Amino acid sequence: MEPLKKTPLNKVHHDLKARMIDFAGWELPVWYTSILEEHRAVRCGAGMFDVSDMGRVWLTGRGAGAFLDRVLTRPVQRLEIGFSKLCLLCLEDGGILDDLWVYRLGTDQYLIVWNAANIKQKLNWLLRWSGSGPDTIIDDKSSATVMLAIQGPTVHQLENLQGVSHLPRFGHTQAKIGGLSVLVARTGYTGEDGFEIITATANASPLWGLFMEQGTKPCGLGARDSLRLEAGMMLCGQDMDIGTNPFEAGLGWLVDLEKGDFVGKSALLEIKRQGIRRKLIGFQMKGREIARSGYSIFHSGQEVGKVTSGGYAPTLSVNIGLGYVPVELAAIGTDIEIIIRNKPVAAHVVDKRFYKKGA
Amino acid sequence: MNPKEYKYTQEHEWICPEPGDKGKVGLTDYAQTQLGDLVFLDLPDPSTQVEQFKKMGEVESVKAVSDLFAPVSGKVLEINQGAIDAPGLVNQDPYGEGWLVRLELSQPSELDALMNSDKYDELVAKLCEESSEQGGGS
User: Fold this and answer.
1) CA distance B113 to chain A (A)
2) Segments of chain B assigned E as strands
3) Which of A277, A312, A314, B96 is 20 to 30 A from B108 in CA distance terms?
């Protein structure tokens, strides 16, 4: 096994006595003090995450926009400079290789931010479609940069972020925080307002320190997972993967079949024409038992699917999950059972946006 | 620190012997810090017979599911409803309010197979050392 990769903030996490785990080959904090406390900090105040495990790839050159339009499911060249959007990277058969954020930095300058898993395969996939032409330069700067997510309803009050509080949702800009040059975007993965900040590796510890000084609570992977699940956000590799198409995953809104040809388009058109057979649902447990990823979903004594994510929803004080079931069982209110410790436990289908900000 | 009068298992349960061959059982402070915030306890029903070192239930934290083993054989007399309703009690007060079950011991001599607090302190110190070596914030 390869040794775990460490982000430039690794020592900072150890100094804070974080509990570290292996996540997609990275040694990262699962919590510093308590997942529940960290979850609450992001729902009620401000928390920060080291999300440097995510890959950051710059694409530049005359052909960069056209190239991205060829491999991604949404039109990228129509994106305004200073904005970003979520897109899918699909295989030829329509399977989901990853979901990723595309930032338009300039006319011929884009940045993609994608999940930590399978980075090499994904880079090879891009290279395969880009060929070796000089029109598109693909530059993976993940190890030269770090990424922090600052999330929560009070983040806009932080002095560090006063200069960028005007940013619209999904907007991004070059800025200075405490004299450090950073790229800031109003994006996140928690269901709250927040910013994600990319900067050079050398700035990692000073930037972290600036937010610590202003009382931003360090948060680990545990809260990152419970927050995103509560907000009904999916994790690629867990809730969808190359064996899943965007329509059954409820991600059809990320697929623009009207745009020009792109990898996977003909397969996706055919899938759409035929209709889907299974669908990702949200469910809520009726009792106290907790569904976990991989548990079986039953209906009328028959196994009908698997849980892909499950856990306790700290803000809602109920137990929730995501999983695939046949479309005829996907209607909200449908009774299902989750097999927990060999026993069927009652649950029912609910809107998978379990938590909505301000609701 | 781990209470002197308690006895401990390798799996990080404790038992506090009571007069009349009874005893309260819970998770150690080390166990609760390792698991993190507990959110669900699956405890054996009262009058269940449990067997030493065999699984008698499960505890779940936000992140993980973990087996709960019986430190000694016996009959379940009582389970801590307070902890079932608010599993965070186990994190806050693992040796007091956060107890899990009360047992009637069928073979009190089994207590001799458990660690005293000195031995258990050593075990925990060793485990903490190992994990900090692995972590090695170099």
Assistant:
1) 30
2) 7-8, 13-18, 22-27, 38-42, 49-50, 55-61, 65-69, 74-79, 101-105
3) B96
| Of B94, B57, B54, B60, residue with least CA distance to B79 | B57
Q: Distance between CA A24 and CA A52 in Å, rounded?
A: 12
Nearest chain A residue to B57, by CA: A341
Q: Torsion over CA of A182, A183, A189 and A195, rounded to 10 degrees?
A: 70
- Token digits of residue A231: 């907000």
- Measured CA distances, A344 to A112, A252, A303 (Å): 43, 32, 11
Interface check for B137 against chain A (CB to CB < 8 A): the answer is: yes
CA distance B77 to chain A (A): 23
Cβ neighbours, 10 Å, residue B6? 23
* B74 vs A158: CA distance, rounded Å: 57
Residue B58: strand, helix, or coil: strand
Sequence ranges of the domains in chain A: 277-350
- The pLDDT tens digits of the residues spanning A194-241 come to 999 999 999 999 999 999 999 999 999 999 999 999 999 999 999 999
Amino acid at position B26, single letter: G
Residue of A28, A312, A319, A338 to mutate, interface with B, max B Cβ within 10 Å:
A312
Give per-residue pLDDT as tens, A261-297. Answer: 999 999 999 999 999 999 999 999 999 999 999 999 9
Lookup: tokens for A277: 């057979």
What is the count of residue pairs from A and B with beta carbons less than 8 Å apart? 44
* Interface contact A292, partner B, CB < 8 A: yes
- Tokens 């295989």 locate to A91
Distance from CA of A227 to the nearest CA of B (A): 12
Instruction: Say how far apart CA A66 and CA A54 lie, in whole Å.
Output: 24
Residue of B nearest to A227 (CA): B62
Cβ count near A43 (within 10 Å): 21
Q: Which domains, from first to last, does chain B contain?
A: 7-122 (2.40.50.100)
- A311 in contact with B at a CB cutoff of 8 Å? yes
Closest CA to A151 of A204, A102, A53, A218: A218
Cβ contacts (< 8 Å) between B40 and chain A: which residues? 288-290, 312, 319
| Residues of chain A neighbouring B61 (CB-CB closer than 8 A) | 35
To the nearest 10 degrees (0 to 180), the angle between helices A64-71 and A119-130 is 120
Q: Can you give the pTM of this predicted structure?
A: 0.94
Give B45-68 pLDDT, tens digit per residue: 999 999 999 999 999 999 889 999
- Per CATH, the number for A277-350 is 2.40.30.110
Q: Please tell me if residue B81 touches chain A, with a CB cutoff of 8 Å.
A: no
